[in-house]
User: What shape does this take?
Amino acid sequence: MLDSVNWIAILAATIAAFVFGGAYYGVLGKQWMAAAGLTTEDTKPTPMLFVLAFLCQLVMAFVLAGVIFHADGYTLANGLTAGGLIWLGFVATTQIVNHRYQGAPWSLTMIDCGHWLGRC
Assistant: This one.
């Protein structure tokens, strides 16, 4: 698989997802903070947090490329299908369970799930 990985595509997907997250929470940041019960002071990011987020997104893009490769090759349909199924089966369900145990409102779940759907 490693010899067939398009590293430029993985890097492009990582950058696109990182930019999407910034834009998404740039628009919904106040609603997200309210749903999470946080203030602006509580959410001051550090440079290391951005580095960590970027590296995690890079891993996610690599893993998704591997899933698509093993599914049936690199096509737009395979990418959308794999991303959607991974989001539904692992990301959305994890967010729902975690937020219910944390007593978080459904609005936080919907905002965070929308963010991860856009990234998958």
In short: The chain has a mean pLDDT of 91. Residues 85 and 120 are 9 Å apart (CA to CA). Residues 7-36 form the longest helix (30 residues). DSSP finds four helices and no strands in the chain.
